[in-house]
Amino acid sequence: MNEELSDTTKRAAPVTLRTLLKMVRGGEKFACLTCYDATTARWLQEAGMHMLLVGDTAGEVILGFPNTIHTPLEFLIALTAGVKRGAPATLVMADMPFMSYQADDAQAIRNAGRFLTEGLADLVKLEVDRSFAPLVAKMSRAGIPVVAHIGSRPQHAKMHGGYYAAGKSAVTAIELLDDARAMAEAGATLLLVEAAPAEVTAQIVRESTLPVIGCGAGSACHGQVVVLQDLLGMSAWQPAFALPTVQIGRQIADAAQHWMNLVASGNLGEHSYVMNNSERAAFQVALAARAAAAAEPNRS
User: Fold this and answer.
1) Is the pLDDT of residue 4 over 50?
2) Is the per-residue pLDDT at 7 higher than 70?
3) Residue 46 a catalytic site member
4) Which CA distances in Å does 86 have to 119, 140, 147, 284?
């Protein structure tokens, strides 16, 4: 099956930024899911997924941290490369983690470049507002395709006492529109809007010259992204905009319990590693000789 999947992966037509732009111009929506490993990436490419996000949510769903700000840079670079190797024909977006771009513009550009070279990413995503426009412009000038993540920004959750929705008042809605415009003018390649009212996001889509990805931001967006574990029913808490389509978590638990029962019963199926008759006979002779040698000191 792995060989068959690999062949299918090789035959898949690659999804590029041009693909997304063509879809947007044609009124066709594109889909994105988070992904953190090569095996899952292969299956998502098999499904025809347009884009994969190696999100800093890996810190939560893979490493078990309580939020995204603990996700290590080196860890995300390695995961991104693994996902791209697993789905080479899929557009892969890398997430720049907390403090990998906020402190120093030069270091931010170097880190973003590492995601493109070592991490094999096609795009990098930053959580920004319009104050980051100069950095986005520098990255764009350096040839780095930037996805500007505006609206609710999980890396800023501590400033709000937890996760929050953006643009719910008239004032903050206009600020969100200004953020989107500033990012486009700075040279961003795509926008990602998280946790914003549908009418605000719809206005961003109307005004923007860029493709807009939504994450809990309404259906007007050109594309949508959710965390894969939410979609598969593996999360302890489900956001309303990412309700599960299956219950893989329950299936994993059931499979584990079935395996435990098989182990307890000794019913492990056919054992494929066998000796031929001559080797079995030789093994018995060797065992007898070994036992005799072990008993020899006791006789003396």
Assistant:
1) no
2) no
3) no
4) 12, 27, 22, 47
